[in-house]
């Protein structure tokens, strides 16, 4: 798996977590996507992209580098990013698409009841490159 991250502190955190959980199949690339993709000579089988303002162009550039039958994974933490990713997946003809919503909830009192209030829900969208 290849992960692209522009923030050096986050790169260090990802690398620390990979060591902690003994993951050896994750490569973290520090840089701004899609510009950092130009230096890639191989075709990764997994690419994970976190949503940003340029998520559409990042998806398209990552798709070009992704190996046949590889998986692309993208995250969205707002409706606009989810829509842009979904639209991009359709345009790229991504197959076997999975969408998962992960949420952390906090228990809050509302009147006489306690309710679970979502805290920063995130969507994880993934799919396969097939020709």
Compact overview of the structure:
The protein has 131 residues and is of the alpha/beta class.
Helix and strand content put the structural class at alpha/beta
Taking the sheet with the most strands, its summary is:
6 strands, mixed
Q: Could you state the oligomeric state of the chains shown?
A: single chain
Give the mean pLDDT: 90
Q: Which key terms come to mind for this protein?
A:
single chain; 131 residues; alpha/beta; Rossmann fold; six-stranded mixed beta sheet; 3 helices
Question: What this model shows, in words?
Answer:
There is one protein chain. The chain is α/β, with parallel strands linked by helices. The chain has a single domain (2-128), classed as 3-Layer(aba) Sandwich (Rossmann fold). The protein contains three helices and six strands; from the N terminus they run E-H-E-E-H-E-H-E-E. The protein has a six-stranded mixed sheet, with helices on both faces. Strand 5 and strand 6 (113-128) form a beta hairpin. Helix 2 packs parallel to helix 3. The two termini are 21 Å apart.
